[in-house]
Amino acid sequence: MPKHFYLHLKMELKNHLFDYLLLFTAGIFFLILLNIFRGQRVIEFFVLVSFAFFYIIWGVYHHIINETLHLKTVVEYILIAFIIIFLLKIIILP
Amino acid sequence: MEKIKTFIHHLFIPHEENNFRAKSLHTDFLTVYLVIAFLMMLVFKQGNIRDVLGFATDISVEKLAQLTNEQRQKNNLPSLSMNSALSLAAQKKAENMFQENYWSHYSPDGKTPWDFILGAGYKYEYAGENLAKNFLFSNGVVDAWMNSTAGHRENILKREYTEVGYAIVNGILNGEQTTLVVQEFGKPITSSFTPPAVQASESIIVPVQPKISALNFSFNLNVIFMAFLLLALVLDLYYASKFNVIRIAGKNTAHLLFIIFILIGLFMSTIGTII
């Protein structure tokens, strides 16, 4: 991995350790719930939607804390979350 | 050629002309992806890729038989031939599991796999059963059986078996929409054994054919799209860190983490359970 890329990632994670730990924990929680409710499609989809909404809230929170909140940024998080929801709905709950 | 190169550069590499953010990650592009994803969702819903109860699986008897025989050939074992009596037994077993609401080789009232096989008119010297539920793809089912240490692998690779029958049946099990896969193995007691003609009905099996390619296609499309998004995010992050770009945008590191978790979840959702 190139040094500048590694340093950037390291600094980003170090400067916002709590935020990323929160996101990582939510991700692990998401996978655990998917595993528990494996095969129960409605609940699987509900878990996915919950994680996607958590992600949007996380994004807003993260940028508020860092005083970098901008409408464009919020829209970006919403768009990515909803793209994922729509795509996975085809698989999980057609 | 130069135009394509410029376009790809514009699409993935942050520079002055794309406001120091890969064009493929701009909100207008993301909006286009969202509209495409939404339209796809509607098309797949209208395109009847599911049956009335809303099951979505890409499992077929032909594929299961092919994959099972491939595993046997890899282990220098003869292929299993399809037997309609065993398929009928598998069908009856699956129907019974839905009717009596159980997920086991043995029914609550004590019916064994052998009862179903004998009930279908198959007199066996050797017989066995594999069960699976809620898998999305045939290869997931066979892979899970092959990786199992609970006798499924032994069933598939048992030298004594000469014939096999399958059933793929949708229904409600424990209140949940479930796709059951039943695989019955056997070796008839005499070589002259022929199953009763009346039970040799292929139409009893419930194949989930019309939606097969659609589900497979949408799954692959999901993986390809997420891989594209990951590539765009990594390249954008790489060059932004290289050029020390400061900009107003979402955090690529967070997007990457989110999509990686979603991808793991997507693959997890293809895996069902076996007994």
TrEMBL record, chain A:
Keywords: Membrane, Transmembrane, Transmembrane helix. It comes from the Bacteria. The chain crosses the membrane at residues 20-37, 43-61, 73-92. This is Uncharacterized protein.
Automatic annotation (TrEMBL), chain B:
It comes from the Bacteria. Pfam families: CAP (PF00188). The chain crosses the membrane at residues 25-44, 219-241, 253-274. The keyword 4Fe-4S does not apply. This is SCP domain-containing protein. Signal peptide: none annotated. Residues 67-171 form the SCP domain. Keywords: Membrane, Transmembrane, Transmembrane helix.
